[in-house]
Amino acid sequence: xxxxxxxxxxxxxxxxxxxxxxxxxxxxxxxxxxxxxxxxxxxxxxxxxxxxxxxxxxxxxxxxxxxxxxxxxxxxxxxxxxxxxxxxxxxxxxxxxxxxxxxxxxxxxxxxxxxxxxxxxxxxxxxxxxxxxxxxxxxxxxxxxxxxxxxxxxxxxxxxxxxxxxxxxxxxxxxxxxxxxxxxxxxxxxxxxxxxxxxxxxxxxxxxxxxxxxxxxxxxxxxxxxxxxxxxxxxxxxxxxxxxxxxxxxxxxxxxxxxxxxxxxxxxxxxxxxxxxxxxxxxxxxxxxxxxxxxxxxxxx
Length: 301
Known about the structure:
Elements: H1 3-6, E1 12-16, E2 18-24, E3 27-33, H2 36-44, E4 48-52, H3 59-67, E5 71-74, H4 98-113, E6 118-121, H5 123-131, E7 136-137, H6 140-144, E8 157-163, H7 168-172, E9 180-184, E10 189-190, E11 198-202, E12 208-212, E13 219-222, H8 234-298
Parallel strand pairs: 1-4, 1-5, 5-6, 6-13
Antiparallel strand pairs: 2-3, 7-10, 8-9, 8-11, 11-12, 12-13
Helix pairs in contact: 3-4, 4-5
Region (Disordered): 250-301
Keywords: Hydrolase
GO molecular function: gamma-glutamyl-gamma-aminobutyrate hydrolase activity
């Protein structure tokens, strides 16, 4: 038994990042970054964090990235470009980040297609909804009459959400009864629901706070910020466990494919050997007959 057989293999979890102007010491440059609490949560839940900065979103490149991952976290950040869901920008909507929108949209689409476990957080939940054909409320104060979902100044507010019974989220929260307090910092939310999504949590005023995609083994997205609750890793643990199952199943599939390919290769070699032997035997037979014929012709009458 090798050392690798004794040490559990931790799933690789990709996390999308910001791409913003950043000042660090003497430098003031565009930079890819992500608050540490995101990847710390993944690591503490048992995963290995891999950062995924925005880059050209051609399908082949995205596919190669996802080939190496066991799970995906689509993180928070600036507003999704409303042009993606057919609306003009509200005055309060952020300037679009087309590079990030395109990159994360393609990541989500391909993750869904291959049933890669994923967790959307805040913007990530909104982008998932848009990627599946849904729309967003661009400015919640216009809808609910207050700014309590985004207190400002980088300060998270706390709201109570009610989780739908029998949902995956309900299971992750140990069949939680009654409201669950969560940290929020958002001025937008899901409006028309994307194809295949179901709502699994709301606040009392009806704002959607979580959705799931039942068509995949683990597709959960929340409007709140679970990474801000250091002593509650349930969402991240659920993702990492699902990613581990995905990795195990994926490796088994690859193993079966390797065995299948080896069997085909061996059969091809066997068939080629038989073919070559048959040709060799036929050639010897033909040569023997040819030699015998020449010999017979040389015999005197």
